[in-house]
Amino acid sequence: MGLAIFTTPSELGHYLQSHRSQSLGFVPTMGALHVGHRSLIDRARRENTLAIVSIFVNPLQFGPNEDLDRYPRQLEIDRAMCETAGVDVLFLPTSESMGTKDLLTQVIPPPLMMSGLCGKTRPGHFQGVATIVTKLLNIIKPDRAYFGEKDAQQLAIIRKIVTDLNISVDVVGCPTLRADSGLAHSSRNQYLSSTGKAQAAVIYRSLKQAQALVASGETRASVILAAVMTELATVTEFQLEYLELVDPQTLQSIETIAKKALVAIAGRIENTRLIDNIIIVFDD
Ligand code: AMP
Predict the structure, then answer these.
(1) Of the four listed, 60, 127, 146, 258, which is most buried by Cβ atoms within 10 Å?
(2) Residue 58 beta carbon below 6 angstroms from any ligand 1 atom
């Protein structure tokens, strides 16, 4: 079976009607596909009989001064990648067919989950994500939907929405894929020069410091965060936006780690905004 491509919810819905006996694995993306996306796709294929990828550069999740217009768009390359990866269905909805140009009903995640981390500097972002992801889940009704742990706040918020709104889907969190330097793969890495990419490796290096400290028995957030800051400061070109240590599920700050903690960083290199995180498990 080749790659079937649809551009409107109704066409896709019609196709899926006749494939209801299959198990559906869904990977929502904004395109400019890389090996991180590929790992989600491979997992969706392994765990389901039909794999669906969507590419939609969602205007609702970009702020007025963000990179919506210059966000990398490479549809031909992405289509070929989906074909090679054995994707069954590629969904490429237009903004019109997703209704984003109209007055759209919005899904508002719990404000407390949006007040920290990326939510602080990106007001409206997670509401935009939540609205479009909910629409996609309603259109596709997948058995499983695959999201990267790289976007940890997004993953926690989507898990919460799916629980709170009784959406019938398994949300599968997938580990972050990285370059050899430790830099997390991201569509936005295309904006970076090779020097910038080398400098950006400091983000994961500093997250590993946090992990090493916890492995040695340290549980105080203040001590862990100070060590991460010291490492980050070794690359003066890195402009820190936030460094937080939070509960991975509720996203609320933790002072002492009891079991699991999410250490998350956002900042800029060469004016490109990058995010990364690590989940640390404390075993006493
Ligand atoms: P995006 O196209 O950036 O919206 O990403 C689509 C999905 O791929 C999201 O669930 C991301 O968390 C996930 N993703 C992005 N980068 C990576 C990565 N380096 N490793 C694993 N998953 C990723």
Answers:
(1) 146
(2) no
